[in-house]
Amino acid sequence: MNRSLFLKNGKGNYRDDEPLIIPGAAQGICNNKLFTQDVRLLSRTEKPYLLLHVNGRRTIEIICSRRELENNESHTHSFWKGARFLSVMTYLDSYAIRTKRDYGYDETHLWGIEWESTYNCVPGNVAYVRVPTLIVGMTENRELLASELIYTMSASSDKSVAFVEGRANNDSLAGSFESAKGPDRESLKIMYDYIDEWLWESGRFL
């Protein structure tokens, strides 16, 4: 029986919800994900885009991920490192997304996902966004292709995407850049300068 119906029929231990523990599904460390252990997967964009280099240069090129190997050991048997713990209704409301039988991914693509099957999904949401849209991706992150996907799926007629060399999605420098000095430290400024430039370009928000 569907777990939500199970709860609604009063057959759970609680009236409103139930705890849900999923072994090996921890989100933060991407436990047991093939693409974190094989960096050839989800490694580059399909098309060329603007790349903001740490030395101030700008080029149009295929964007390649600079991420490194992660999680070469399984944390499935660890509760704190490996398990995802939430509630049944929270999972159904905010985390569950439908996949098709042909679900998969390679170097440049994800397929077999119903992006609009949950409200909590950016690619599905931007299909209804028509205001000017800027997507900024980071080269040192496993979510590199998400930026391209969001840009492609956006319904806006005024949309742009750019990638920042050497930065991760938590707005930090990649390891190889963190220890460097000089122009590499300017990547944050380069990113925000570009955002400022885009906002004022052609009087977009005047």
- Return residue spans where pLDDT drops below 50 for at least 5 consecutive residues: 174-183
Mean pLDDT: 84
Envelope shape: globular
Percent of residues in helices comes to 25-40%
- Strands in their spatial order, largest beta sheet: 3-2-8-7
Number of helices: 8
Query: What's the gyration radius in Å?
Result: 20 Å
What does this 3D model show about the protein?
Mean pLDDT is 84; it is low at 174-183. This protein starts with a helix and ends in a 6-residue tail after the last helix. It has 206 residues and is α/β, with parallel strands linked by helices. 19% of the residues are buried. The protein is globular, with a radius of gyration of 20 Å. It contains eight helices and eight strands; from the N terminus they run H-E-H-E-E-H-E-H-E-E-H-E-H-E-H-H.
How would you sum up this structure in a few lines?
About 25% of the residues lie in helices and about 25% in strands.
Index terms:
8 strands, two-stranded antiparallel ribbon, single chain, 8 helices, alpha/beta, four-stranded mixed beta sheet, 23% strand, 206 residues
